[in-house]
Amino acid sequence: MNGSWLEKYDQPQTHGSSPKSEFDAFMELSKDPSIVFDENKAWDRVSSRLSITPAKKRFNFTVIAKVAAAFVLVALSFVVYQVSLTDKPHLVEISVTETPMNYTLPDGSVVYLDINSSISFQEDFTERIVNFEGRGFYDVVKGGSAFTVRSNDLSVTVLGTAFSVETYKDHFSSFVSEGLVQVSDQHTNQMVNPGELLTYQKSTRKFAVNKNDNPNILAWKTGKFIFKNTPFDEVTKNLENYYKVDFSNVSQFKNCKVTAEFDQQELSEVLAVLGEILNIEFKISKSEVKTLGKGCR
Predict the structure, then answer these.
(1) To bridge 197 with a disulfide, which of 8, 28, 112, 212 should be the other Cys (CB 3.0-4.6 Å)?
(2) Is the pTM of this model over 0.70?
(3) How would you classify the pairing of strands 147-151 and 189-192?
(4) Are 227 and 258 in contact, with CB atoms under 8 Å apart?
(5) DSSP states of 169-194 as a string?
(6) Could you read off the pLDDT of 196-228 as tens digits, one per residue?
(7) pLDDT digit string (tens) for 17-60?
(8) How far is the C-alpha of 137 from the C-alpha of 284, rounded, in Å?
(9) Pairing of the two strands 189-192 and 181-184
(10) What is the DSSP code string of 198-267?
């Protein structure tokens, strides 16, 4: 390398010289040991002539598309959630505490609810499913789908029939008046025919089905009683279920037997007849019936 080359290099470059040729010239010059020059200054000259400009930033359309899609998905999810809230059928809940009542369900089926009983179902009633606790009698009309009564882990399924359901604490029972009933838990199905009584112990998870021999099994609903040499304590239990009273001092008359029939008579009339038959006096105080006298003739 010589001074003339340096002078040439130091002159303004002609148009069209490439950044690569300028850089190669700088590298060739730097290898000549006879030339002493300021490296920093030389590099500044070269770099200024290379005219390197930073590339323009480009939008990442893939990222933008993903963000937009996520936004649309969230928006649609919100709309679907809002619609589901709006379209969700209301839950109808009915509880009976003091007086039994008849209630007609949306499909025309009728349920008789005893006191301390409750029923709930979806307002549209498209699936004909009710949740039930307590004691009730169902008169189910035939429909396009099965009718199901659910009580905790048990369900009673029918198409069109009449049956009772009683569920309290550890006890469940169902008496079939008409039609065919299927009672199910999580493991077993049990069919019940007309005139049969199914009982189920929740603690043991065992079904039992027997022919019903109790003429008063529905007396709690109908108010019709048939007693044939029936023990007095059993008589009072039947009367308690229908008239919603409590009898006291019953145990001392447990050996007394009753033969009589009653059909929706006033409680005072029933007690008057029982008093004559058994030589017993009754005193009614609100919902309590006190039993007095020697008893049994």
Answers:
(1) 212
(2) no
(3) unpaired
(4) yes
(5) TTEEEEEEEES-EEEE-SS-EEEE-T
(6) 999 998 888 889 999 999 999 999 999 999 999
(7) 554 454 455 445 444 545 454 555 554 554 555 444 444 444 45
(8) 29
(9) antiparallel
(10) EEEETTTTEEEEEE---TTTTHHHH-EEEEEEEEHHHHHHHHHHHH--EEES-GGGTT-EEEEEEES--H
